[in-house]
């Protein structure tokens, strides 16, 4: 005797019925890059099909998002001005702050998340304040909290610290609460690895470090127990959602986090993961749509309840077609 597994694969009705993991448009968060300047819609060479938008042209991507049925975005900024202290990151009229106001004006129901970090705004490209050639953790916390507050003031629904300083979640929570933003939530990039998969993003956001690397603050790709400690601390400090990033090379970390913590879990399907699929598709090696679907299904199957991906708009369109 043997079990006939193939009975439940006989046709699409029964396959659909026994499917364990189903993607839907609630799962996806789309990254948006807002740039200083006017009348700009500039293709991002490293992220095929994604663009830099100036505030006055944000409506173009908002229309696409609406049409596809994407419900949530994460905003990144490309400022004109960079300095040692990343001052345009927390300026009231900074690029993210203006972008968020515009997004909320164009589409009030859109759930707007902001990436809270300093690397796009500092002249040295590191995620914090430099003292003696090192990123000073505790000094940086003051700035990170100010950035988060300025995003909340602009209308962000959720802030997402990606700097990897210790104690940032409690610093942000305290700052938001003291200023009357108790209902602005925090999605912490908790287990953020020092990954080579961020290359295309750093080109897109012009945020590569000018000296050294990020190994003294982002996690070692070899570690998984440490990731659980990072997540545990962020939960204790008041994060509402915790994240593992990147996604595809870290599915084991996602699965362990899912099993260990009864907490909302996000994963970031990062730029390098996206770019690899795009490049292979362009070379005619794979079926882009099928591979993208499979990749995102595997991230959800591993345990991520929500996924940040440059495929969000495409995926939501494809899911609509399948309905
Ligand atoms: C900012 C930040 C990065 C990413 C998200 N937020 C880059 C980095 O840490 O260098 C990467 C996203 C991606 O690769 O898609 N710190």
Q: Overview of this structure, please?
A:
There is one protein chain. The protein has 323 residues and is an alpha/beta fold. It has a single domain, classed as TIM Barrel (Alpha-Beta Barrel). Helix content is 39%, strand content 18%. It contains eleven helices and twelve strands. The protein has helices at residues 12-18, 58-68, 95-106, 137-154, 168-178, 199-205, 225-237, 251-260, 271-282, 288-302, 312-322; strands at residues 28-35, 41-43, 51-54, 72-78, 111-116, 130-131, 134-135, 158-161, 185-192, 241-245, 265-269, 306-309. The strands form two sheets. It has an eight-stranded parallel beta barrel, surrounded by eight helices. Strands 6-7 form a two-stranded antiparallel ribbon. Helix 2 runs parallel beside helix 11 and helix 3 runs parallel beside helix 4. The chain is globular, with a radius of gyration of 20 Å. The two termini are 39 Å apart. The mean pLDDT is 97. Ligand PBG is lined by residues 115, 117, 119, 127, 162, 198, 201-202, 207, 270-271.
Architecture blueprint of SSEs:
Layout: H1 12-18, E1 28-35, E2 41-43, E3 51-54, H2 58-68, E4 72-78, H3 95-106, E5 111-116, E6 130-131, E7 134-135, H4 137-154, E8 158-161, H5 168-178, E9 185-192, H6 199-205, H7 225-237, E10 241-245, H8 251-260, E11 265-269, H9 271-282, H10 288-302, E12 306-309, H11 312-322
Parallel strand pairs: 1-3, 1-4, 1-12, 4-5, 5-8, 8-9, 9-10, 10-11, 11-12
Antiparallel strand pairs: 2-3, 6-7
The structure holds ligand PBG.
The site of ligand PBG has 11 residues, from helix 6.
